[in-house]
Amino acid sequence: MIWTGWNNGSHHESGAGYGFKVDAVDRDRHFRRNWTTVIVDLPGHAGTITAEMNVAKKSFWSAQCRELISRKVGRWLIEEGYALRSAGLPPKFEVEQSAVRRFAVKRCVTV
After folding, report:
1. Whole-number Å distance between alpha carbons of 108 and 99
2. Which terminus of the chain is more exposed, N or C, with fewer CB under 10 A?
3. Domain residue spans of the chain
4. Complete edge-to-edge strand list for the sheet that includes strand 49-54
5. H, E, C per residue of 58-101
């Protein structure tokens, strides 16, 4: 899967307003509507960072939104240098489903 780095337009140092946008086809294939949260493992310089993210919201299941939002992901995007990309060129990440309700970000696939 390829997930896209996402921000709501407010670039908070706290990481608020950041996350990943999931393609609708991947969402429908790998996520279940009866789940309340998923776990996302992020590769870090000091080890893996784990973020629990809400999927029990209308916006995640809508045609337009599909964002997984978390301050932990926002902090990770900022610390890894992915947060402040040029407009229209968000970073994209290779992601694998590693277990039921669990996903692992493997690497950035854009520079």
Report:
1. 21
2. C
3. 2-108
4. 49-54, 37-42, 102-108, 92-99, 2-7, 18-22, 67-69
5. HHHHCCCCCEEECHHHHHHHHHCCCCCCCCCCCCEEEEEEEECC
Report, in angstroms and rounded to the nearest whole number, the Rg of the chain calculated over CA atoms. 13
At 6, list the tokens: 């996402």
Other beta carbons within 10 Å of 20: 27
pLDDT tens-digit profile of 53-109?
A: 999 999 999 999 999 999 999 999 999 999 877 667 899 999 999 999 999 999 999
| CB 38 within 8 Å of CB 67 | no
Cβ-based neighbours of 105, under 8 Å, separated by 6 or more = 3, 40, 41, 42, 43, 93, 94, 95
Tell me how crowded residue 29 is: count the other CB atoms within 10 A of its CB: 10
